[in-house]
Specification:
Residues 19-32 have a biased composition (Low complexity). By secondary structure, the chain is of the alpha/beta class. The protein folds into three domains: 70-265, Rossmann fold, CATH 3.40.50; 274-303 and 500-566, no CATH class; 335-489, no CATH class.
Length: 567
């Protein structure tokens, strides 16, 4: 590929020129030029790539560059007024965008630090998606197998616990200097954000609410901490044991006093195909309508892609994903190249779930891979798909011009949207350090964004990935920012948008799995469905009825289109 500087139209630019009117549905078997990921329904609700840094970086716009839609702005206004807020909505309604803006507000306008403002989620992957950590780790509950009494005893200390039960404050019940880190976190916290609260069991919510009041010596709901909750209870269900299905967080005894006003976002910004939107809402509510069956039939055949373009398989079970990726890699000619991560001394196998990069990664020429880090806004972002075309040192590709080294200093010479600015000297130092490293890194051919057939070859050198662990602090791991991308699990796909996807519904076992899988597709023309059966559509009727009760209260439904209107 000619070594030229590339300027690409951003998804925001494209969307700003599109009509907000609904487009007619077209069931197409061709996917030559996918639509932009973010399609606006209201003029201000478009999201582009982000510069957020976490172990799971996603394409999302810098919050300063985006104007929230009116419905989304209402959520932010409630937060600014100091209210406890739970906001929800179907996939694509901009929950992540609103959450990023909320975090930005507290950090920039309120000058809150990591001690005052805590960003969490129930799982490691969901936590890193929002630039935070796991709720369990922050709260000091570990894997949450101990009783409330034992947990409190562990956090405040055996010598303090009896006195605190009699109403003595945590500071008067013992030496304040001897407080453990978990207790200090609870005391210092002013705002607690929990993303994907829908994956949190009611019993755990009640446990944390009691802990907050007890540790902080404050009988206000959640000990006076401002709560910001987000999630979709019709996506993946609460995490619980194998013996019984856990109840939803909104069924917790303490939920009504903690959540003053649930807010429902109902405009979908990710898809502009109204037929697809209607089908997603059918599936979300367990309605197998004639239009849904017609849509599924139309998409139950292979999609024709341009040469070198392929979909990602979404599968229900990890073993299926692992088997497909391993089989695909074994089927390629040549020997596999192993890449082993390295990190700080606190990293270990027990922390693997916090990172998106693997400890051990094997690649071959021809391997299909997914980029796990944002390198160039709108062009090379987390989720970009490519193919390994060779291996080389940084010095070799720099000398020959055969590829661009995947570090900001080199990328800035290739793409106008690549990062530059204050970190220029650091980027330059990083670049020259790469030239002195004789590791043969993978060269990956990526497409330059979703709406172009132009490709670029990138030498994927190792990058640092950070994960938040509330006891150990920020932990880093350095690894090639790639993963095999023949298949990924539906659970791992939650929160992502995929340009080209083949959804395998075999082995669906969880409520919401089918809906989550189908709603990952940015463009229905690039969606293939295999192993369809009506039994794959599983929902929880309790959650459905709860959403209907929200929609019945019109002032709380923020948007033009409610679930009941999709019938």
């Amino acid at each position: 590929m000619e070594n030229k500087r590339i300027k690409l139209e951003t998804s925001v630019d494209r969307c700003m020129t599109e009509s907000a009117a609904a487009q007619p549905a077209h069931a197409s078997a061709s996917c030559a030029t996918p639509s932009p990921v973010h399609v606006k329904t209201e003029p201000s609700a478009t999201a582009g790539p982000s510069t957020q840094t976490s172990s799971t970086e996603r394409p999302a716009a810098d919050s300063d560059a985006i104007q929230l839609a009116p419905a989304q702005e209402q959520v932010l206004s409630r937060v600014k007024a100091g209210h406890n807020v739970f906001f929800t909505g179907s996939a694509g309604t901009g929950k992540s965008l609103v959450l990023r803006r909320i975090v930005q507000y507290f950090r920039t306008e309120k000058n809150m630090s990591g001690d005052d403002l805590v960003v969490t989620a129930p799982t490691g992957l969901a936590g890193t998606n929002v630039g935070g950590g796991t709720l369990h780790s922050w709260a000091g509950v570990g894997i949450n197998v101990e009783s409330l009494k034992q947990t409190l005893n562990n956090i405040v200390g055996a010598e303090r616990y009896p006195a605190m039960r009699d109403g003595v404050s945590i500071f008067e019940a013992g030496n304040p200097d001897a407080l453990g880190s978990s207790a200090k976190r609870w005391i210092q916290c002013k705002v607690l954000i929990i993303d994907e609260v829908s994956m949190m069991a009611a019993s755990f919510f009640d446990k944390l609410e009691h802990m907050a009041r007890f540790i902080r010596g404050n009988e206000q709901p959640f000990g006076g901490i401002q709560l910001i909750l987000s999630g979709d209870f019709l996506q993946l269900p609460p995490i619980g044991g194998a013996k019984s299905k856990p109840r939803f967080a909104f069924q917790a005894t303490s939920w009504p006093k903690c959540v003053e006003e649930p807010l429902l976002l109902s405009n979908v910004y990710r898809q502009n195909d109204q037929a697809f939107l209607a089908v997603l809402n059918d599936i979300r509510r367990n309605v197998i309508s004639p239009r849904s069956l017609a849509f599924i039939k139309a998409h139950s055949k292979p999609v024709e892609y341009p040469s070198g373009v392929w979909p990602v398989d979404l599968c229900a079970r990890k073993k299926t994903v692992q088997a497909r990726n391993d089989k695909a890699l074994r089927g390629l000619a040549g020997s596999a190249r192993p890449f082993t991560s390295y990190g700080d001394s606190r990293d270990g196998p027990h922390l693997d779930s916090l990172f998106t990069v693997q400890r051990e990664l094997s690649l071959k020429v021809g391997a299909r891979v997914m980029l796990l880090k944002n390198l160039v806004p709108n062009v090379l972002v987390n989720g970009s798909l490519g193919e390994v075309i060779g291996f080389s040192t940084a010095a070799q590709v720099h000398s020959s011009g055969s590829a661009t080294i995947g570090v900001p200093f080199a990328l800035a010479g290739k793409f106008e949207s690549a990062p530059t600015g204050y970190a220029y000297q650091r980027y330059e130092k990083e670049f020259y350090e790469c030239l002195q490293d004789y590791t043969e890194w993978p060269i990956v051919r990526f497409r330059c964004g979703s709406s172009t057939t132009e490709t670029v070859d990138i030498l994927c050198v190792a990058h640092k990935f950070y994960a938040a662990h509330f006891d150990k602090g920020a932990i880093w791991r350095k690894q090639v920012p790639l993963a095999l991308a023949y298949a990924i699990t539906i659970h791992k796909a939650q929160g992502q948008t995929l340009e080209r996807v083949r959804v395998d519904l075999a082995g669906i076992f969880e409520a919401g799995q089918c809906y989550v899988a189908l709603s990952r597709a940015a463009n229905p023309a690039c969606l293939e469905i295999v192993n369809w059966s009506e039994s794959a559509v599983k929902i929880n009727n309790v959650a459905v009825e709860w959403y209907r009760s929200l929609e019945a209260e019109a002032p709380k439904c923020l948007g033009k289109r409610a679930m009941s209107e999709m019938n």
